[in-house]
């Protein structure tokens, strides 16, 4: 049992394929993702960076023929964003965007700094899968709704009717705001889905923490304080701190060019191997427990 991992790595391609299929069957899938980009350290430059990251995700969703719809934002959608929430829907969205969760760091000379000094800023990205089978899990008696007037870009009122929805789940304190639609009922339904996503993913994260598993990190529940990637404009280099790989060509990366796909493949390979290691470790632990149980039974 001690050499199970070595045997798989050394001489059993079919075993790796089998384990790979087992991992795929035991990992969750979701038709939608709720994402949030929030400016961190760096003041105005952090808000500008958050806008750059949102624009990148918008380009990526478009490139992959996925739908992206904004639910809420604070700041200027054209210049800088202190916070923006949006939903992405499409085949493979969880695999593609789940690994974006965590803290992103940028090092560059801001256009707003006349002195030409290098600044370091951050933004935090949250990714929450929205599962089909948990749409009605929230008990509506536990939800407090407020209906507000929806506002458009620049703060002007888009509707005279109260179509925007603020929903708070009283037992957990989770709250969401949605003004995606011009219709109150659609915003209400979307707010419930967003609450479901927050509650379910919080429960999954707690369960994974108890199991000391890395699977939750791969699927978007990485702690927001964990730095995952640095974008260094001066060196024209992007480093992913999980797989320790880097690519050159920041402009190409943010344009969803070949540098993005190259780094993405490296990250996915690293995260899969991490999952495989965890799967094998759990398998060995189960086998040891079974052998221990059998030994105890025979001694009696």
Characteristics:
300 residues, alpha+beta, eight-stranded mixed β-sheet
* Percent helix range: 40-55%
Q: Span from first to last CA?
A: 25 Å
Net shape: globular
- Biggest β-sheet: strands ordered side by side in the sheet: 2-3-1-5-4-9-10-11
List how many beta strands DSSP finds: 11
Largest sheet: 8 strands, mixed
**Radius of gyration from CA coordinates:** 22 Å
Mean pLDDT: 79
Tell me what the structure shows.
It is a single chain. By secondary structure, the protein is of the alpha+beta class. 42% of the residues lie in helices and 26% in strands. The protein is built from eight helices and eleven strands. It has helices at 4-11, 13-25, 44-63, 93-97, 184-211, 215-218, 250-254, 258-299, and strands at residues 32-39, 67-76, 80-89, 102-108, 119-130, 143-148, 164-169, 175-178, 227-232, 237-240, 245-248. The chain has an eight-stranded mixed β-sheet with strand order 2-3-1-5-4-9-10-11, sandwiched between helices. Helix 2 packs across helix 8.
Summarize the SSE layout with pairings:
Layout: H1 4-11, H2 13-25, E1 32-39, H3 44-63, E2 67-76, E3 80-89, H4 93-97, E4 102-108, E5 119-130, E6 143-148, E7 164-169, E8 175-178, H5 184-211, H6 215-218, E9 227-232, E10 237-240, E11 245-248, H7 250-254, H8 258-299
Parallel strand pairs: 4-9
Antiparallel strand pairs: 1-3, 1-5, 2-3, 4-5, 6-7, 7-8, 9-10, 10-11
TL;DR of this structure?
The chain is an alpha+beta fold and 300 residues long. It is built from eight helices and eleven strands.
């Amino acid at each position: 049992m001690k050499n199970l991992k070595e045997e798989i790595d050394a001489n059993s391609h079919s075993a790796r394929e089998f384990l790979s299929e087992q991992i795929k069957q035991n990992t969750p899938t979701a038709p939608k993702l709720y994402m949030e980009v929030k400016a961190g350290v760096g003041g105005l430059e952090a808000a500008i960076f958050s806008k750059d990251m949102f624009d990148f995700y918008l380009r990526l969703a478009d490139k992959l023929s996925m739908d992206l719809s904004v639910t809420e934002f604070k700041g200027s959608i054209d210049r800088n964003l202190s916070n923006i929430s949006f939903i992405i829907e499409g085949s493979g969205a969880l695999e593609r965007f789940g690994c974006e969760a965590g803290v992103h760091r940028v090092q560059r000379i801001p256009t707003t700094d006349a002195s030409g000094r290098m600044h370091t800023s951050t933004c935090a990205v949250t990714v929450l899968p929205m599962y089909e089978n948990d749409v009605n899990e929230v008990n509506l008696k536990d939800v407090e709704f407020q209906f507000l007037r929806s506002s458009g870009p620049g703060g002007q009122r888009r509707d005279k009717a109260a179509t925007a929805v603020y929903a708070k789940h009283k037992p957990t304190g989770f709250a969401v705001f949605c003004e995606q639609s011009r219709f109150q009922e659609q915003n209400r339904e979307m707010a419930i889905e967003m609450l479901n996503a927050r509650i379910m993913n919080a429960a999954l994260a707690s369960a994974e923490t108890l199991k000391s598993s890395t699977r939750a990190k791969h699927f978007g529940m990485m702690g927001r304080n964990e730095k995952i990637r640095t974008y260094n404009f001066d060196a024209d280099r992007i480093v992913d701190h999980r797989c320790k790989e880097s690519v050159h060509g920041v402009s190409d990366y943010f344009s969803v060019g070949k540098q993005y796909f190259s780094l993405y493949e490296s990250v996915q390979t690293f995260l899969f191997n991490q999952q495989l290691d965890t799967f094998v470790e759990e398998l060995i632990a189960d086998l040891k427990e079974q052998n221990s149980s059998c030994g105890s039974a025979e001694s009696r």
